[in-house]
Amino acid sequence: MNNTPESLTETRGGPDAGRMRIRRVGRVHGSVRVPGDKSISHRSLILGGLASGQTVVTGFLPSDDCLRTLSAFSSLGVQISQTDPSSVHLDSPGFTGLAEPDSILDFGNSGTASRLMCGVLAGSSFFTVMTGDDSLRKRPMKRVVEPLSSMGAKIDGAGAGSRLPLAIRGNPLKGIYFFNAHKSAQVKSSILLAGLNAEGPTTVEEPVQTRDHTERLLPLFGGKVTRENLRTTVHPSRLTGTRLHVPGDFSSAAFFLALGLLTPSSSLTLEDVGLNPTRTGLLRVLDAMKARTLRVIPSNPLTGESEPCGNIHVGFSELEGIDVPPEWIPNIIDEIPILAACAACARGTTTIRGASELRVKESDRIRGIALALQVLGVPCEEFPDGLSIKGLGPEPRLKGGTVDSLNDHRIAMAMAVLGSRLPEGESLIIRGTDFVSTSFPGFTELFNQVVEC
Ligand code: S3P
Asked: Between helices 409-419 and 365-376, what is the axis angle to 10°?
């Protein structure tokens, strides 16, 4: 495909942590596979690190976030090698054979790694200290520290144990019943992972179904899990290594779905995308917005245990604004920045409420989206728990300029997609784009591969 000059250019590093420049895209077509699922990649390493023997993970996401989990398990004494960036081989002595690390575990930007590893380390027989980057050190940790403490964990840290750095003195744990009021899969998974090595069963109940990768993957490693409606119970289990394949990340595919939907005369296929129903809520939202060109072709049966995946085909579609039902939010929690980009190009207003969790993600995403949309000339109202976006229609008269991603990968990629709809001659500079590699290494290259100017 003729890609010169490229629509999306990127400078990496430097005082502003990288920049992207995007200008109008003429056409979008092709067939691509986005990198592996971030949530499943973290969990594959964690379960493989806790399991005795060998685990082989293919389709692994070699992003900055997942490599933090990988290096944490190396520090805990697990032998890990990568035959290529997306194939990982772990050889572990199992949970009871893990060793006290020599130094502090640094989880960088990764909320998932830090929260899930709290649950793992709470029941260990040694001492660990964990920290993270400027963003992660501001994010709430009490949501895992409190329930883990009620299981017997000994955890202290900044802000009276509510933020990183955290010091964890491994201690024997006992199973609990826990209600997951934050509707957080990270919190649920942290408690379930702690429950693997606790005395007696551990039950987590949730008000709505959050992503269920931990529950689906555990049985592959011999973990004992029972599920009954919105209650998940783990029983103390000794895990054994296995082989598993990580499908493409639906949350990464979402940027390309939107690019295809918003660009006239597009035809794009996304291959081997994870279709776990707890992750694909955006398809339901887009359907309600009258996206008539999305075709999902599952490649394995949508059963409860394994991770379903398949291809998604997308073409241009005129969208209509909707009120997103608040109960849909947990299943689109990572897709709201790209949903905002779609809403900006829809006819009518899109309202997103019940999403206050967005304020404590990698950035305050409600603020970040509202500020960026203002620069682009999209009318937007900010609420404590969401946004209302007045769409400019399928040929939006957007304005060029400079937006700040707040060092948030998903805001950066969403603005790159929206910037591709700028009028001819305009361009958008996005600041803070080095963080795109926390979830989507190679985003710029893949973007330029499917677009024509
Ligand atoms: C994740 C759960 C979600 C999501 C995050 C990954 C996971 O966070 O936003 O990107 O892998 O469990 P919460 O569970 O805190 O909402």
From this structure: 20
CB 173 within 8 A of CB 151: yes
Looking from the CA of residue 214, the nearest atom of ligand 1 is 12
**Residue numbers annotated as active site:** 334
Domain boundaries, the chain: 8-36+248-452, 38-245
Q: Dig out the tokens for 92 from the structure.
A: 């572990």
Q: Is the pLDDT reported for residue 2 higher than 70?
A: no
CB-defined site of ligand 1, < 6 Å: 39, 112, 184-186, 189, 210-211, 333-334, 357
In this structure, CATH architecture of domain 8-36+248-452: Alpha-beta prism (3.65)
Tens-place pLDDT, residues 43-76: 999 999 999 999 999 999 999 999 999 999 999 9
8-36+248-452 matches 38-245 in fold: yes
CATH class of the domain whose range is 38-245? alpha beta
| Tokens encoding 321 | 């604004």
pLDDT at 1: 43
Tens digit of each residue's pLDDT (9 = 90 or more) over 157-214:
999 999 999 999 999 999 999 999 999 999 999 999 999 999 999 999 999 999 999 9
| Whether 205 contacts 192, CB under 8 Å | no
Closest CA to 101 of 71, 134, 66: 71
CA 38 to ligand 1: nearest atom: 11
Closest-CA residue, ligand 1 atom 16, reads 184
